[in-house]
Design a protein that fits this description.
single chain; about 500 residues; 20 helices
Amino acid sequence: MPSSPTRDLTQGPIARTLVVFALPILAGNVLQSLNGSVNAMWIGHYLGEAAITATANANNIMFLLIGLVFGVGMAATILVAQSMGAKDLQQARRVMGTSATFFGLASIGIAALGYPLSRHILNWMGTPDAALPLAESYLRVIFLAIPLLYLFAFVSAILRGAGDTRTPFLFLLLVVVLDVILNPVLIFGWGPFPAMGITGAATATLVSNAISFVAMLLWLYHRRHPLWIGRRQLHYFLPHAAILRALVVKGLPMGAQMVMISLAMLMMMSMVNSYGIDTSSAYGAALQLWTYVQMPTMAIGAACSTMAAQNVGAKLWQRVDGTATAGIWCNIWMTGLLIIPLVLLDRHVLGLFLPAGSAALEAARHLNHIAIGSFVFFGVTFVISGVVRSTGAVIPPLVILAISLWGIRLPLAKWLQPWLGADAIWWSFPASSICAMLMSLAYYRWGRWREARMLPTADEETVATPAEIGGQPPAPVCALRRLHQPDAPSSRPRACSHKA
């Protein structure tokens, strides 16, 4: 039998294990950003401004749809990681099956609703008339691709929960390579393929994700992956009520964070736009730079969440604390070492995103000097939030984010403008990031996150069993455990004690 591709994150040196586990996540984030840049180049340079406007509007909808289930994917990752840490493979498969059913049905429903409503959605967004036909053609194909995008992201998240970041990276690399190759082929109609224009760009996304997703499933089957659900285990795809409830109840607050961040960025952009084209283009250039600056933080935070969850499942609380400490220091070093050259060479780096001789360059350098350091503090918050969420404590990180964005950043950016002008917007970034970091550290130190649960315990589930409701004595604890492990190997009968 091939060696298991999963990684046991409950053993080995914490810092080294964390970094090795996080590197493929970081590489995947870089790949996705580069892929988006290459696609934008083909469309923008060869199909014109209307085409790039069309894809921008359609991609905003796609990112929103992906964000809607982002939190559910994170909840599934944590559940699988806890199960793997507890060495409960049956529970991990049960999470896999329930999650697959949820993502499959949700994605098909969204595609079925979105395809005929594409033009109405784009009209509601205020898409310019010149770009509307192109955007509709592009978005309709994207809606057809949604099931593949959802399921690919879901399987990747499950594999990361099992301790495997290498496999998702390799198949994401396949997606990117195929997308980069197919974009010009389908846009311009090279070889036997017809010229499809902007629809070809969306079709390239659909085809590349389809090929990679099927290849990933074949790989899981061929390698006899521990989480692969075979023909004799199809009952795992029947939704398990407690797991489904956890996916929704725990996942929605995590997904809400993405929505909250997006809305706050829109509010900030409206303030920036009021200062004219030079300031808005300077801010746009800085945002392009910051996309790459926060990648180490996102990778380390995601790795910390999975690693902490496995150790929570194994009840190794000392390693959970060690994961938080290692994640904070890794973030400080990786983000800090990236920020230093970007500040020293910012004239050249920001110049990559602005026209030659642009008057916005000095404004971009100025705001970058003020705000870029905030990503170190943001990284600490992201790491702590990932560790805290690994137990199922999802509401406090959401509240902290809401306070830092809507209670600190946006009010400071707005109310201080009469005295500081546009600088009020830039200074709101470090101010809110420092406050968020302090609140997160305080909750980590004094909060009750260690007592949170993703799923109810066996004892809790005996409280309202049908036997008790009917006036009968509660089921024996060991019988309840067998209900939760229907395919567990049989053993000799043993005495059971009733739970009083």
